User: Fold this.
Amino acid sequence: MRSWLHNRRCAGLAFALLVIATAPAQSAQPSASPPPTSAQLIASLGFADGDVGFVLVDVHSGQVIEEKAADQLFMPASVAKLATAYAAKQILGPDYRFSTSLYRRGANVYLQGGGDPVLSANDLQALAAELRAAKAGGAGGRFFYDEGSLAPLPEVSDRQPIATAYNAGLGALNVDFNRIEVTWVRRSGVLTFQARSIADGLIVPVDWVSFAPSPGNLPQGVQFIYAGDGKGDRWQYSKLLPDRGDTFLPVRGTALHTALVLRQLALAAGVALASPEPGHVPTNGVALGRIDSPPLSEILIGLLRYSNNFSAELIGLTASRKLTGRALSLVQSSQALTDWLEGQAPGTDWRGFHLENHSGLDSRNRMTPRQMASLLALVARDSALMAVLPPREDNGEIAAAPKNGNVRLVTGKSGTMDYARALAGFFPAQDGRPLAFAIFIFDAGRRAALDASMDRRIIEPSPEARSWTHRARALDDALIKAWMAKF
Assistant:
């Protein structure tokens, strides 16, 4: 069974965008003055009344306890992953496993991908051992990679910064979450770079990723810009890069990159493979080895905790392929799962509900608080999925398992993009009945202005956007605490 340690490393990246959190137990305390209303909380944190919508629902009865703008459309950000997780688990089944296989025909070797979102260099090392045992990859043979099961994409969203590891490419072949660690140091006036793919206890140099100085000046704060062709990865760096440093960069040409990692590991095992080239496994290919992922139920634990975007896309694409029998584009796949979800709750008004992708990493995604509550009602019927929803803490970290069984935990999923914040999940009422909530905060005007003026080379949000996000997190926390004190 594969460890989730490499998934934890993903959480340390830009996935702070997608934090999940737990609230401590709340109890109603007598006060000389009444607690603030939701309108007062919204105003006190500097939000316009129209920027906020929410709904609080009794899960068992379906009764709406509190609501505000519950039928208004908001940007869900990573809360959309709840829809993906639920649909994929129902369509694929909790025991579904992604497979990555090796074949041979004569002296030729074929690597075939199945869209495994958690494939690691450790797994490829195991395949390299199979090659050695089979004495495959001999002189004169060619090495092919087959990515035909899913249409490859160079990035999750073309409306996000380019050099962010959370916006990596994806396809049938992926390794180590499609990100590389890059370190550099200046020696004798010259910058030298080292790029590595990192797995549990295994580091693989990826010398095929190249670096060159940018021919022009880059904006302040921009360190790297992509200069590859979507297959072979190349980066240009700023002339203002410090003398030493490190960062993580996304992999764009994921299939070729994965094949090259296998080639490197095979060489270390004493097997010399030719340079990889695209191809398809022949019908009379002989199986050499296969790596199966952990079951989907286990993968979903990592997805909901660490909110890896490309993993969500791969899971959603695989589910839509099972549903339709076809390898769909990301937009087509999202529509297929949307149609399926809407069929699970036919009594809901789904007008305006729109998802461009399965991760939520797109500013065109929209849903209402009431639509999210319908999705939560579906999730609540799946006890296994409910059991792995992460708890949230006041400081935004994932909560440890409570030592006190009487603690009232808030569990669910959050999502954050510039000028959009969402939080949806569950907590028990004071009498023990389960309550579901969906909170959306969205400044549509500022987000539209940002999209219109976005420089995709710039990674860091503006101070204004950071301040907005800080206030939005404070507001959803305040709303939940008020509800826990009241109900």
User: Anything to note?
Assistant: The two ends are 42 Å apart (CA to CA). Residues 1-28 have pLDDT under 50 and may be disordered.
